TrEMBL record:
It comes from Paramormyrops kingsleyae. This is Cytoplasmic phosphatidylinositol transfer protein 1. One of its GO terms (cellular component) is nucleus. Catalyzes the transfer of phosphatidylinositol (PI) and phosphatidic acid (PA) between membranes. Binds PA derived from the phospholipase D signaling pathway and among the cellular PA species, preferably binds to the C16:0/16:1 and C16:1/18:1 PA species. Keywords: Lipid transport, Lipid-binding, Transport. Residues 1-242 form the Phosphatidylinositol transfer protein N-terminal domain.
Length: 254
């Protein structure tokens, strides 16, 4: 297993991002779903955990065979999906990805959100081992993203929010911005197939890094769309988007 920690700062509070995260995931999933591929929502319901308390459990099927690199497409069926299960006990979440066709492949993500600039060390309580855990600090404004994902309206070096007055994000924005929060993500990728393990695990981490960068950029770039929403408002929006996305994929409504 290849384990890394990602830290992504945002010019928001943890409470604000609770709404922004739900809005962004729902909108992005809907926009990315088309022609039978995309994110199908299987269930989304309240969940009570004896340790973490009240939360939400969501199960999705991610249909994306055409988005795989050519060497990976040669290994899997033309039509397949990845199962995503997420337990949201905000500000702590767990997300797992599995693929029935590749039983030795899985992704496990733990996330914690804190109102700081990424300064909390060993937030997941990892035991010390022979090799140090790699920590990758992502800059949503100045790190490069794949060209296909670039949108000028989402360029945070230029974007300014009319509702919050925040932005543009200059070089030193993480030192000068208030409020500021950080998404801490502990990501483990496992692909136990001899001869392919290292290549696949490294590739998946690169994809995850790009997804995290684009997703957090969009959450702030779309802030004026969701900033006035309450948690109830965004839950209703989430339900509407799930139904619309499933219809787009030609699936039955939940």
């Amino acid at each position: 297993m290849l384990l890394k920690e990602y830290r992504i700062c945002m010019p928001l509070t943890v409470e604000e991002y609770r709404v922004g995260q739900l809005y962004t995931i729902s909108k992005h999933s809907h926009e990315e779903s088309d022609k039978g591929e995309g994110v199908e929502v299987v269930r989304n319901e309240p969940h009570l955990d004896p340790v973490h308390g009240e939360g939400q459990i969501t199960e999705k099927r991610v249909h994306l065979s055409s988005k795989l690199p050519s060497w990976a497409r040669a290994l899997v069926p033309r039509i397949f999906y990845i199962t995503e299960k997420a337990w949201n006990y905000y500000p702590y979440t767990i997300t797992e990805y599995t693929c029935s066709f590749l039983p030795k492949f899985s992704i496990h993500i733990e996330t914690k959100y804190e109102d700081n600039c990424g300064s909390s060390e060993n937030i997941f309580g990892q035991e010390k081992s022979g090799c140090d855990l790699e920590v990758d600090f992502l800059d949503i404004a100045h790190d490069k993203i794949p060209e296909r994902h670039y949108e000028s309206s989402e360029d945070l070096r230029c974007f300014s929010s009319t509702k919050t007055g925040r932005g543009p994000l200059k070089e030193d924005w993480k030192e000068t911005s208030q409020p500021i929060m950080c998404s801490y993500k502990l990501v483990g990728v496992k692909f136990e197939v001899w001869g392919l393990q290292t290549r696949v695990e490294q590739f998946v981490h690169k994809v995850i890094r790009d997804i995290l960068l684009v997703g957090h950029r969009q959450a702030f770039a779309w802030v004026d769309e969701w900033y006035a929403m309450t948690l109830e408002d965004v839950r209703n929006f989430e339900t509407q988007m799930h139904k619309a996305t499933n219809q787009k994929l030609g699936r039955l409504e939940m």
